[in-house]
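Structure in, sequence out. Go:
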């Protein structure tokens, strides 16, 4: 078997050297997105939103949902919709959307397959930063059973002036958690989240295990994450490989 070199580049920038099979990493902390990463919620969101937009005479395609709504705060998405259609959404649209979505999430939301095992394997400080409202986040964590893992470890877009793709939310989350931005790994599923992480100067991995990705969502050609992660088992494996998960030793051969 060929001997591998001690300098590795298969995870660009995430770790730089292995000596005696132990990885030396510049990453020391993790920020997780919620929707589409921890919980498999994006198809639910799309279904509710597309239905309600059709009801008010402003039907949208799946592609418009992905470009204008996915990964954005509601305020940001509403502004995009107003520009696209030349008129604002009705004043009560957000409230009705939230009520209808939360009602469906209460019965239909599922945690991402393997997420509990992945979280159990994490061996570094971590935080959650989401474009969701506090109410939606609370329901997501409760229904999915993930609330114990994120008690006092959450930030939402309501806490900053500019949501994703601006870096504000991630920098705010890092500040609250006491993380150095340059040492943060962000796990995201959307273009907006990846752009926000890059603007914040953070490593970002694109998680593609959600139903919306399997249904056809793809990043625009110019958006390049540092790594693509297919499922939670791979995420746990790669966190271990960069020293952020249990079993932080790299097994060669």
């Amino acid at each position: 078997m060929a001997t591998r070199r001690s300098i590795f580049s298969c995870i660009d920038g995430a770790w730089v050297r292995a000596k005696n099979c132990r990885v030396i990493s510049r990453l020391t902390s993790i920020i997780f997105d919620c929707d589409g990463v921890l919980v498999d919620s994006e198809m639910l969101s799309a279904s509710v939103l597309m239905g309600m937009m059709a009801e008010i005479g402003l039907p949208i395609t799946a592609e418009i949902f992905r470009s204008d709504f996915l990964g954005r705060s509601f305020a940001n998405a509403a502004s995009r919709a107003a520009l696209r259609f030349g008129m604002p959404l009705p004043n009560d649209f957000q409230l009705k959307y939230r009520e209808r979505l939360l009602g469906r999430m209460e019965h239909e939301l599922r945690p991402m397959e393997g997420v509990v095992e992945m979280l159990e394997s994490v061996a570094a400080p971590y935080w959650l930063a989401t474009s969701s409202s506090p109410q939606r986040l609370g329901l997501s964590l409760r229904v999915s059973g993930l609330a114990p893992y994120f008690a006092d470890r959450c930030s939402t877009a309501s806490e900053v002036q500019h949501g994703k793709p601006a870096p504000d939310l991630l920098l705010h989350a890092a500040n609250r958690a006491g993380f150095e931005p340059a040492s943060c790994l962000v796990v995201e599923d959307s273009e907006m989240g990846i752009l926000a992480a890059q603007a914040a100067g953070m490593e970002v991995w694109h998680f593609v295990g959600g139903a919306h990705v399997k249904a056809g969502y793809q990043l625009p050609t110019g958006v390049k994450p540092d790594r693509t992660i297919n499922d939670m088992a791979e995420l746990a494996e790669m966190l271990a490989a960069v020293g952020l998960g249990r079993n932080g030793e790299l097994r060669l051969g």
